[in-house]
Design goal:
This protein is of the alpha/beta class. It has 8 helices and 15 strands. A 7-stranded mixed β-sheet has the order 1-2-3-4-5-8-9. The chain has a 6-stranded mixed β-sheet with strand order 10-11-12-13-14-15.
């Protein structure tokens, strides 16, 4: 089956989605403190893109290639091939790298921006060559939010954090750069602090020629959490802060012209947050 690419044009900035995989799962497997009755109230706008007919939510794992001026940025690098993964999900053997290189060659990437260090966001930071894992993008600077990096390198162990494959090969090659959580990558692309899912989690904002967009990272996993920001995600490291961040995000971007591009949103992957009654929903174009 031919690979399906989704693209967006935000002013002069082009964004392309490169899919690694997409899968349905029971809502309670991802979303904490879910209210089944309230979820049913959202089914009319969640189906068919974000929820299937069986009531399972659909989760996408993809990278976003952002072209800004002369710079090419890959935001989050999915799960990767040939490595052990939590919950016995790996090793994977997908065509992701070939699909990505149909958009941009590995050597042409200028920056890799990881919203956080979970295994499904740093997996293709490295690739297996022989018996070793080496940086996939040899000419790129890999950007890690300083607070995120320092928390996990110096702090607690977490099975979702991938230092072995997603971080250490990059550090060993001298390709990483620690940046502030509001760092400007280009004149059009900047980071926005969205902590809670992890302590140093960041989202990515785009502003060009008066048009705006934001790439969520795991600040929100599924569109229903924009309508119900109090519903957490099981992997949230600081649940109360994650709820606060989602509420602030909805207040900031609800009923605006800002295009929200979800890092795990399936189907159209993007939309605008619209207030409907006492709640919000993601309306896709």
């Amino acid at each position: 089956m031919a690979t399906e690419y989704k693209t967006w044009q935000i002013g002069d900035v082009k964004v392309t989605r490169v899919l690694e995989q997409e899968a349905p799962l029971p809502p309670e497997a991802l979303i904490a403190n879910i209210d089944p009755d309230r979820l049913k109230e959202h089914e009319s706008w969640l189906k068919p893109h974000f929820m299937n007919e069986e009531g399972q939510i659909v989760l996408s794992i993809h990278a976003l290639v952002v072209e800004s001026g002369s710079k090419t940025i890959v935001v989050d690098t999915c799960m990767g091939n040939d490595r052990s993964l939590p919950m016995e999900m790996g090793p994977l053997h997908t065509s992701f790298l070939e699909d990505l290189e149909a958009i941009v060659k590995r050597e042409q990437v200028d920056y890799v921006m990881c919203t956080h260090l979970h295994f499904d966001h740093v997996g293709w930071n490295s690739m297996k060559v022989g018996d070793d894992f080496v940086p996939t993008f040899p000419n790129a600077k890999y950007l890690f939010a300083k607070a995120e990096y320092e928390h996990w390198v110096d702090g607690p162990e977490d099975e979702n954090i991938d230092l072995r494959f997603g971080v250490q090969p990059v550090v060993d090659a001298g390709l990483h750069e620690l940046v502030a959580d509001d760092h400007a990558i280009t004149d059009e692309i900047a980071l926005e602090p969205t902590p809670g899912h992890t302590p140093g989690h960041v989202s990515v904002t785009i502003e060009s020629r008066g048009e705006r967009a934001v790439i969520t990272g795991d600040m929100v996993h599924h569109p229903v959490q924009l309508a119900e920001p109090g519903w957490g995600s099981h992997p949230d490291a600081i649940p109360d802060r994650a709820v606060q961040t989602r509420r602030e995000f909805v207040d900031r971007y609800g009923d605006t012209d800002v295009l929200v591009i979800g890092t795990h949103f399936s189907g159209p992957t993007s939309g605008h947050i619209k207030k409907i009654g006492d709640s919000y929903r993601l309306e896709s174009d």
